[in-house]
Specification:
Elements lengths: L1 H17 L3 E5 L7 H11 L2 E6 L5 H10 L4 E5 L11 H13 L4 E10 L6 H21 L2 E7 L2 H10 L5 E4 L7 H7 L2 E4 L7 H9 L5 E3 L23 H11 L3 H16 L8
Parallel strand pairs: 1-2, 2-3, 3-4, 4-5, 5-6, 6-7, 7-8
Amino acid sequence: MEECAKKFKANLTLCAYIMGMIDTHCHLELMKNVDDVVARCRATLRGVVSVATHPNDYEKCLALSKKHNGFVFMGAGVHPEYVKELDTKTVEKAFSWIRRHERDIVGVGEQGLDYFWIKETYWRERQKELFVKCIELAKELDKVLIVHTREAHEDAIKILTKNGAERVQLHMWGDSSFAAAIKDNGWLVSVGPVSKRSKKHQNVARDVPLEQLMLETDSPWFGGKETHGKLIGEPTNIRVGARVIAEIKGTTEQEVMETCAKNAEKLFKIRGANHA
């Protein structure tokens, strides 16, 4: 009986910490039945940062953040993958929208470099130019710079450092060789479900201090999988990253959840729901 009571108390404690988690990077505006998704999130999380990466998605994401004020927080930017699609005039219109709605957003992004999808030198240079402009915009508005980097980590670090990027979230960062630069600059890395299968992301979680880590899902893209194989493309799967970090750092899930949530609230200057 006493053992059951201990287990019950432990489960209650874990549930309390789970409700304290914040998904610092997802895309609610791209999800089907989003109200149902948010309802499930409210039952288990403290808050969600939903990042609109294309101007066509800004208004929908804004509406979600207003409807779920204090729980859904918005980021807005131009994904580097769209560098060929969006001309200079369209990008400037996007920046104007962001400036007009600076009180409605907590971050600029996701911005950065993507050499996986963009192979041509010309377009990679355009990505770099756009990245610099986004760093300047984030600093101007005093917002978090939400950084996307794929197969371009060295160039991204150089640009961030040269341009004095300050409040930085390195979303799903996958190169531990730059851990020293990340620590020295006080940037934060968000760890998601991909870390369960990616050694590179596990190494990042190992080498970056817990005080500079956050949790994310990047859902619907990287929700993880249930035991029967169905993709869970929503923020409720955020514990995957927490488990990976806890195992690597030899600490508890509770410690990871609590610390990562505090890190997120400090970086984004937010106070999520269910906050004690």
